[in-house]
Input
Amino acid sequence: MKKIIIGLIGLFLLQTANTYSQSAKTSGNLTFSVTGCENNDGQIMVQLYRKNDEMPSSPFKKVKATIKNNKATVLIEGIPYGDYAAIIVHDENSNGMIDHSFGIPSEHLGFTNNWELTLFSGMPSFDKLRFAFSLTKTNFSINMDE
Output
């Protein structure tokens, strides 16, 4: 009987520790599913920004992925939960930067919150692209056609 009680206490403590470790988690893996690429040339590059990062020149993280069948999945590991903004670049020449022609981006861009770049809009602010990354919200979809 004593062994059964000790075993039950042990199971309770293990379950409590597991629950605590999941609720105390402060970072996770962020995934962007990118669709609507015009072609499979080059790569998709996700530039991730925090509130005080200078956009678009100084991203917090920059991660690249291969394009297959006009789509890509970009995984950014070990990101602290919080508010971020992202610019997604179809880097057709794989040079790792947003190319411009006469001051206008010459490569296709996508943005969080479905923000759309127009001739007169200029680049968006952090607040226009802000999204919350949390334990329950880890996957984001970006359609480059929009």
